Amino acid sequence: MNFELSEEHLAVKDAARDFAVNECKPGVIERDTDQKVGYDQLKKLGELGFMGMMVDPKYGGSGMDTLSYVLAMEEISKIDASISVAMSVNNSLVCWGIEKYGTEEQKQKYLVDLAKGEKIGAFCLSEPEAGSDATSQRTTAIDKGDHYLLNGTKNWITNGSTASTYLVIAQTDVEKGHRGINAFIVEKGWPGFDISAKEDKLGIRGSDTHTLVFTDVKIPKENRIGEDGFGFKFAMKVLEGGRIGIAAQALGIAAGSYELALAYSKERETFGKPINQHQAIQFKLADMFIEVENARNLVYKSAWHKDNGMDYSISGAMAKLHASEVAMRTSVEAVQIHGGYGYVKEYHVERLMRDAKITQIYEGTSEIQRIVVARSLIKD
To answer: Which residue out of 75, 99, 350, 363 is catalytically annotated?
Structure first.
């Protein structure tokens, strides 16, 4: 087994690190405080080729592997998880979903601009009464012959107002249950499509999370993805890959927290010496480092599985579960090591602690990941 990164992977990692430090860090506190989306940063991500990293170059993408994407997500998430979640949704949910399952016409019409970062995508699955239970879709898309008529509400939608292209999951035949669910490409500005309230969140406050309302929105038949009734399978398969992206985000939050804590421990002095000379702090740093390394191994392995055409449903679930919990623990410890300074915005760790929590919730809660793993263990 080779645990060394290639020169290409190191170059991606360095480019992402430089972008995070030079483009994301300036103003990150203000964007968090004011809930401002980093439009300039997202535009520059597109110019770097980071908004369609895994997309074939013939569709405007960078043609990179999943590990490259994970490395970029990790580095950017160390500093600004709001930027990285927008990047994650566009890459591993929207672009991947259209490239994998869309028609050639859909790829030419939508994927090219998304992969270039000229347009932003959003993935619309969650509803007020359908979170972890994704089969309980209340949003409907009724077949009217030459089009579908979409009605319903989606909430917790990342890139809710920033996006111009939305993948919407809706029920087309209630009697068929989850086999009567379809996925559609919906454009911003279509009559009856309203972007509603922006959520005032604990963390990732620089990400625009909205409720979307659809009232008699006409969807052309050619905007359905896949065969009739494919929507639920589409959503689940897309989320399997999306979890690797969120695992990488959680890893970045954890690693960023550790790095800030380590640096602070060398500068801060108590009782006449740097605090990293106290065994209590040394033990905390050691535990943080070990947990981050374990999370990194799981995340990289899940990316490796995906890149090598292997089943990544379990390794992705394991990576997201562990990395998100490590992000929470490590960021809390980083605040503790900073003491009172960790409780104020200037030192960044309090923001990382707030950002960490959502990684245990979105794109499948920690409980859902445990179910996925457990079922794989006990099946015949």
So the answer is: 363
Can you tell me the distance from the alpha carbon of 312 to that of 222, in angstroms, rounded to the nearest whole number? 30
Rounded to whole angstroms, the Cα distance separating 321 from 318 reads: 5
Q: How far apart are CA 114 and CA 239, in angstroms?
A: 18
Do residues 299 and 239 both lie within one domain?
yes
| CATH code for position 225 | 2.40.110.10
Query: In whole angstroms, what is the distance from residue 23 CA to residue 42 CA?
Result: 10
Q: Is residue 98 within 8 Å of residue 111, measured between CB atoms?
A: yes
Better-predicted residue by pLDDT, 380 or 77: 77
pLDDT digits 0-9 by tens, 311-345: 999 999 999 999 999 999 999 999 999 999 999 99
For residues 323 and 299, the answer to whether their CB atoms sit within 8 Å is yes
Q: Token pair of 8, please?
A: 């290409």
How many domains in the chain? 3
Cα Rg of the chain, angstroms: 21
363 has catalytic annotation: yes
Indicate if 368 and 349 belong to the same structural domain.
Answer: yes
Domain boundary among 175, 209, 232: 232
pLDDT of the residue at 134: 84
Looking at residue 112, its pLDDT comes to 98
DSSP string, 281-345: HHHHHHHHHHHHHHHHHHHHHHHHHHHTT---HHHHHHHHHHHHHHHHHHHHHHHHHHGGGGGSG
- pLDDT exceeding 70 applies to what percent of the chain? 100
Q: Answer with the one of 97, 120, 143 that is the final residue of a domain.
A: 120
Q: Model pTM?
A: 0.97
In the predicted structure, residue 380 carries a pLDDT above the cut 80: no
